[in-house]
Amino acid sequence: MPSATGLRSKPAVLLIAAALLVSLVFGLSFVAMHRFRDLRGEAVDPVAHPLTDEQAKRQVLEPAGEITATGKLKGISASYLLMSCTNADDPPYQGAVYLNFDVPGVMATPQYFESITTAMTAKGWTVATPPGGHPGGRTLTRNGVTAIYFRNSDKADRATMQIYGECRNTTDHRSDPTGWVDVTGALPH
User: I need a surface site. Which of 36, 61, 101, 163 has the fewest CB within 10 A?
Assistant: First the structure.
């Protein structure tokens, strides 16, 4: 058994201090990395099953068509964009469709939105947290796709639906020409 003076010797104290310091650094690093991931979410994780450009487009265009038909949306116009999930340019990317459609008057819009929600939940969509900044808006999700819809604040007779796919396209599109592409013709009318 070591003597009390042996544990108080300068080399022993330095060894104990170094062991405690290393433990503290590793513990803080572990907490910091998990906190960083919590703040950024899955965007910092490597993509396990990447999507091609066409698959990313189909992932949002097919639900847009389903919602248009099932929800009986009228006066539709839609645009598609492959957008960065991390910033303005870097991979990974996700497909996005912005869909505009007609809504009845302001007082009838909540009931109309509820009818869309009811029709889509019957097709396997799940109601999610309503979008912030859009009173009366709705959010639906299914298979990694999120659809957010709300009344257009500039035009009382129009609504906007934003449909986002998963962040699984890892192709580098930083040098591609960008801009929304009209996909209205690809949706049922």
Answer: 36
